[in-house]
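Support reply, case 0932

Customer input (verbatim):
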Amino acid sequence: MIKLPRKAQRPTIYFIGVTTKRSSIMEVFPEWAKALSIDAVIKGIDISIHADPKDYIDCVEFIKNDPLSAGALVTTHKIDLFHAAKHLFDCIDPYAEKLEEISSISKENGKLCCHAKDPISSGLAMESFIPSNFWDTHGGEVLLLGAGGSALAMSLYLTQSKWGDNVPSRIVITNRSIPRLEAAKRKLDDLNPKVRFEYVHTPNPSDNDRILEGLKPYSLIVNATGLGKDAPGSPITDEASFPSNSLVWEINYRGMLDFMHQANKQKSVRDLHVEDGWIYFIHGWTQVISEVFHISANGKMLKLCNDIAMEMKNSD
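Our regenerated output:
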């Protein structure tokens, strides 16, 4: 059963996750609030993975009915929370409707609103390390390990028609459970005729190894699972071989990060670019803070927040 916080005494933003006390945001947000002149505090709400729908309903109802609860960032539970509590929201943004997920909860003019910010935040993060015209130049592919909200958001971003021919030739999404794959297929099919999607059931890490080794060079491989952060382990084994000249993205920034360590061991010999989830963390939070507190998420804000968080991270 979920443990909800007490009624807020000050404007409060919540972090809805699995192990929120371990997140850097609990220490970073107060410093951000000072720098951005936001009069608010942050509190975590921990919910077990794939919890009872009533837990998600209780959580959203608490925020909705508590006057000083300003909103929340949702991680891990984005899809489950949407399906359980969709009926409680007065406005749902198009990305949330399309992907059937919620990463941001906010209030505006007495209405409870939800947004899916990942297509924006993951896109901004990818723009920071994927070279210009990467797909058009090299014809590489994408492997998304995990079929959760982050993988769906990345797929949506990478296949936008505005990119023209600069899109991956193929996107493979793998997952341990079949229902998530079926849901992903329903949401993502027919996004872009230039991109071929494949959905592969991989109950064991060795199954992902096989998919990984079949990718073209100059591909993008993403750990979009909770393994290495919310749960121990990696979606691949130590015997897996990354395609040469590829980009490897561990979207987590804390935890054991086994997947990232596996990639780093092959970094030199396979000419890999290995990226962690730090900039994704910054973009994700600044997008939600902007929505919750109705301020502009511009470049100046991003740099200020990144500088503060990086200074605190390096001082640990």
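We compared this against your earlier run and they match. Two observations from our side: The domain at 12-116+279-315 is CATH 3.40.50.10860 (Rossmann fold). The chain has a mean pLDDT of 95. Please reopen the case if you see a mismatch on your end.
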